[in-house]
Amino acid sequence: MRGRLPARPLAEVADAAVRVFLDKGFRPAGISDVARELGLSHGAVYTYADSKQALLYLALLRVLDPEAVAKLSTPVVAPPAEGIVEVVKVWAAARGGLDSVSQVLSEAPAESAEQARDELARIVDGLYGFVEDNSVALKLFARCSEDLPEMTQWYYIETRRGLLEVLGRYLRARIDAGVLRPVPDVPVAARFIVETIAWFAMHRHGDPDSAMLSDADCRRSVMDLVAAAFAR
């Protein structure tokens, strides 16, 4: 008789789930996809996680708090969808990177064009650092939000749209004060800033023509060029 394969570390199962969900999203992915990634049978995966939702929980936990996975007992039982999103919300609140615009708005406003340019550069750098440091988590949120209404509500409506609204209010306030230059459309300008940051900090790694660019050069260039684009 063939001997049984040694048990896989739960972190290895979680890493395989991360790769599968990033590639396929939540609904199209199956437990068999994770099994194939691990070289296990479909049934063997159930010794580590009791459902596909439990695998998603494992994947999210792995990218949010890598060491926490090792503390779980097997088979991992998934919390309800609301509980999974709550884990993500707690993580995001602790990171605070998406609050950088609100923080600047709560401070004394820039009184000169030079101060406003430096202020906007600081906002861009803070957002860039958050996206760069958490790119895998953000990709996983976006990929799985397509199939989970609770994740869609948090990621796209509360977080992304909320960021665009706050950034738009910031731009409007500084334009009205005369320290940033007028733009044709403030919501489009806010979207331009966010998407520029997202592409260089995260998505360019999937582009063969751009993946070789230095992280430091991209961060400095985005900060400088975005601030210059809005300077008086």
Shape: elongated
CATH class of the largest domain: Mainly Alpha
Radius of gyration: 21 Å
CATH topology of the largest domain: Tetracycline Repressor, domain 2
Total helical segments: 11
Summing up helix and strand content along with how strands pair, one would put the structural category as: mainly alpha
Low-confidence stretches: none
Total tally of structural domains: 2
SSE order: HHHHHHHHHHH
Share in helix: 55-70%
Q: Using the 3D structure, state the CATH architecture of the largest domain.
A: Orthogonal Bundle
Biggest sheet statistics: none
CATH-defined superfamily of the largest domain: Tetracycline Repressor, domain 2
Distance between the termini: 78 Å
Number of strands: 0
**Overall residue-averaged pLDDT value:** 90
**Which percent range describes the beta-strand content?**
under 5%
Explain this structure to me?
There is one protein chain. Helices cover 66% and strands 0% of the residues. The chain is built from eleven helices and no strands. The chain has helices at residues 10-24, 31-38, 42-45, 52-64, 81-95, 100-106, 113-133, 135-145, 149-176, 186-201, 215-230.
Secondary-structure topology with pairs:
Blueprint: H1 10-24, H2 31-38, H3 42-45, H4 52-64, H5 81-95, H6 100-106, H7 113-133, H8 135-145, H9 149-176, H10 186-201, H11 215-230
Helix pairs in contact: 1-2, 1-4, 1-8, 4-5, 7-10, 7-11, 8-9, 9-10, 10-11
Which terms would index this structure?
single chain, mainly alpha, Arc Repressor Mutant, subunit A, Tetracycline Repressor, domain 2, 2 domains
